[in-house]
From TrEMBL:
InterPro entries: Proteasome_assmbl_chaperone_2, PSMG2_sf, Rv2714-like. It comes from Glutamicibacter soli. Signal peptide: none annotated. Pfam families: PAC2. This is PAC2 family protein.
Length: 302
């Protein structure tokens, strides 16, 4: 099955182009309103934690943040007490075996001057020859923690829609910096798509390893990255068991979770296509190869 089908990737999307300079794929996530459970920022941070990254630039400090709204933090280090200011950093990760490098944008949603903030990122995207972009977000939703994490991909770009068999988002309403940046990237001529995951609103506190894991697995499908996730998978299992125990101890919460489960199970589900089955089989083989050194033993169930 996997000999006949391979999930589409962002590298594959830009591979056919004629590039005078080494291209890059931009990946962005921001702490704040569109980062429920810190799942999106933690997923992108996991790329940096497992890669040799070159720091390109820092955006922020006094230009874009209200420190009464987004407070700096302090900690004691070997050099004395230091202040960590909210900011956004840009890193480039070389991918010699792939068609493009990664340009990772990770930081905190700015308080004001969003257009100027996005313009700064676009300047660095142009300088780094970004040819496609992916923004990540996580949102609170009426979904049960006992079911698979709902995820979605969308794009306004016709080429990406065809390549990934996705559509434009139908959402209209208040928005955050991932969406604003995505719109500005698309307007500048950089094909951009978004990836979102949903977190059960009754367990909104960070971290949320189960939702982070769902995003990490999709990042591995879309990008030429391999992120060691065995500990994250174990954390996700422990997280779910912990929430199960908390829900079981409160009859009202338990009843509410059951209602969400019933609504989720009763919702109309698309019939599984050959492409969907092949994608899931590829994901299963990737997990099996990573976590089973002898080819035996059960997979983790989350």
């Amino acid at each position: 099955m996997t000999d006949q089908y391979h999930a589409p990737t962002l590298n594959g999307f830009i591979a056919g182009g004629d590039h005078e300079r080494r291209p890059a794929v931009l990946v962005a996530a921001f702490e704040g309103w569109n980062d429920a459970g810190s799942a999106a920022s933690d997923a992108v941070r996991s790329i940096l934690d497992t890669s040799a990254a070159e720091h390109v630039a820092t955006i922020g400090l006094d230009d874009y943040y209200d420190y009464q709204f987004t407070r700096p933090t302090s900690k004691l280090t070997e050099r004395g007490r230091e202040v960590q200011w909210p900011q956004t950093d840009i890193y480039r990760i070389a991918q010699p075996g792939a068609d493009a490098d990664l340009l990772v944008v990770l930081g905190v949603e700015p308080t004001f001057r969003w257009q100027g903030f996005c313009a700064r990122i676009l300047e660095h995207a142009a300088a780094q020859n970004v040819r496609a972009a992916l923004t990540l977000g996580a949102l609170l939703a009426d979904v049960p923690h006992t079911r698979p994490v709902p995820t979605s991909m969308a794009s306004d770009d016709p080429g990406l829609q065809e390549h990934f068999n996705i559509t434009a988002s139908s959402y209209a309403g208040p928005t955050g910096i991932p969406s604003v940046l995505g719109i500005e990237l698309q307007r500048s001529g950089i094909p951009t798509m978004s990836l979102w995951a949903q977190l059960s609103h009754y367990v909104a506190q960070a971290p949320s390893p189960r939702v982070q894991l769902a995003l990490v697995e999709l990042l591995e499908e879309l990008l030429p990255v391999s992120i060691p996730a065995q500990q994250l998978r174990e954390d996700a299992v422990a997280w779910k068991l912990g929430v199960d125990e908390l829900a079981a101890s409160d009859p009202e919460v338990s009843k509410y979770v059951q209602q969400l489960e019933a609504a989720t199970d009763a919702s109309e589900l698309p019939e599984a296509s050959g492409e969907t089955i092949a994608r899931e089989f590829e994901r299963y083989l990737r997990r099996r190869g990573r976590y089973r050194t002898d080819g035996s033993g059960p997979d983790f169930e989350i």
